[in-house]
Amino acid sequence: MDTPKNLILIVDDVEQNVAVLSQVLRNTGYQVMAAFSGEQALKMLDKRLPDLILLDVMMPGIDGFETCRQIKANERTADIPVIFLSALSESDTKVKGLEIGGVDYISKPFHEAEVVARVGVHLKIRNLERERLLHIEQLQYMNSEKDRLVQIVSHDLRSPLSGISGLVQILSEGNEAHNPDTVKYFSKIILQSTDTLLSLVNDILDLAKLESDKVDLNSIEFDLKEALIGIIELQKFIASSKGLYLKLNTDADIIKVMADKPKLLQVMNN
């Protein structure tokens, strides 16, 4: 696929100047559009944005300096580089153009090599600036992803870990810990919770999935009721500390579902 050609706007009230510059730039591989006054150029910029503007200083109506001021005052066009075209060689004139936002001058009469060189340099600078801004956006996105991961760790991991801690505390205290059935039951819940935590950690480490918002689902058939009972047992210690009581209200012996079990348990734990 061909790389899009840079578009250059030529603004000059002399048709011959426009024709000469257009030919030089097209021969170099650029696209060209032309305006013959500052007013016409500003109207064209409302519809299409070029990559660079060649702007004549001396024009009837609003001159090149005022045209440049209006271009730089508009947020949509402010970052477009403007190279002034002028037969005036006074340093004060050049300084004025640079002070209002111009990046360079090309003297009349035009020299093809100079036109090509100056245009090429400033287009490269503009492209580098675009890459810099894109890099900044990418860094900002990565920072926001990092913050999101911190929130996931602090929220999604804290809940099951607190439940596991509560179960372990029960197992380590009192006579219940010596009941083999209780130990087996709580151990099963803890194992189920650690599987959920491991799955969550794997998702966090898989940055590619998080950045592209693509998550692989591995569906299996399992008993949802059994999973819910485990979650309630895990969460009831947290709930009781807040004055809440959790209860599973169903008459079904088994609730078979087809889903990604670790991810579904992660959602229900939250």
In short:
This protein is of the alpha/beta class and 270 residues long. Helices cover 60% and strands 12% of the residues. It is rod-shaped.
Description:
This protein has 270 residues and is α/β, with parallel strands linked by helices. The chain has two domains: 7-110, Response regulator (Rossmann fold, 3-Layer(aba) Sandwich), CATH 3.40.50; 144-269, no CATH class. It is 60% helix and 12% strand. It has a five-stranded parallel sheet, sandwiched between helices. Strands 6-7 form a two-stranded antiparallel sheet. The longest helix is centred in the middle third of the chain and has 61 residues, at 112-172. The mean pLDDT is 82.
Q: In terms of topology, how is this protein built?
A:
Blueprint: E1 7-11, H1 15-28, E2 31-35, H2 38-47, E3 52-56, H3 64-73, E4 82-86, H4 91-99, E5 104-107, H5 112-172, H6 180-205, H7 207-212, E6 220-223, H8 224-241, E7 256-259, H9 261-269
Parallel strand pairs: 1-2, 1-3, 3-4, 4-5
Antiparallel strand pairs: 6-7
